[in-house]
From TrEMBL:
Organism of origin: marine sediment metagenome
Keywords (A to Z) from UniProt: Membrane, Transmembrane, Transmembrane helix
Keyword Transmembrane assigned: yes
Any one GO molecular function term: monooxygenase activity
Pfam families in the cross-refs: Trp_halogenase
Source lineage: unclassified sequences, metagenomes, ecological metagenomes
Protein name in UniProt: Tryptophan halogenase
């Protein structure tokens, strides 16, 4: 079974949470326009 991840939820608003969300979003934004959403 091979499902594509479309949404990632980062729980926590501290520095680690914001950095994780920013890194994930920037990495996937540059790769392709597959609609990955980081919340």
């Amino acid at each position: 079974m091979n499902k594509t991840i479309k949404t990632i939820a980062v729980i926590g608003g501290g520095t680690a949470g914001w950095l994780s969300a920013a890194i994930i979003a920037s990495y996937h934004q540059g790769k392709n326009g597959d609609g990955l959403k980081v919340m």
